[in-house]
């Protein structure tokens, strides 16, 4: 038997394509940033002198062109990262598609996840530690917070209570993209905005240690 290739229309393949597109956009942003750096400028460096004349020490045309392109690319990056998030919902939790109303299919209440029916959602992970000045610390995550929702992931997204692989995969494709994290803390439910990123000064893109949490 031959090797079965993934359908080009499958959510997983679409996610791969979007991630490749995101990487290409980020690479071009970096290239345009190098143009600015080569001209000793950034997105806000004045291009005229104190008397209002164009600065002779700068390549004004190259800087303006690079700035304009960076603005376009940032908008493109925002759009593609949002689309990645939507596709990943289908990759990690195919049941999401069943929750979308249509004219021909009705969804019975009994088929919905328990947290949609009104039951109190259950945490699936616990924050075991948070590094100072990390993305996790900046978002407001605390040690011993119980994670109820991480982006689109909930307890029902995990086939095994002992593995947080899907969470790690989501983080890996969400660099510089805001993820809403819902946590229980001392009988309070909090929604925090977490932006995974590299280069913050420590390991990983979160700067926290998250472990599985099982109430059973």
TrEMBL record:
Keywords: Chaperone, Coiled coil
SUPFAM superfamilies reported for this sequence: PDZ domain-like (SSF50156)
GO biological process: proteasome regulatory particle assembly
Domain Nas2 N-terminal, chain residue ranges per copy: 16-92
Coiled coil: 63-90
GO cellular component: cytoplasm; nucleus
Ranges for domain PDZ GRASP-type: 125-210
Cross-referenced PANTHER family: 26S PROTEASOME NON-ATPASE REGULATORY SUBUNIT 9 (PTHR12651:SF1)
Name of this chain's protein: Probable 26S proteasome regulatory subunit p27
Species the sequence originates in: Pisolithus tinctorius Marx 270
Lineage: Eukaryota, Fungi, Dikarya, Basidiomycota, Agaricomycotina
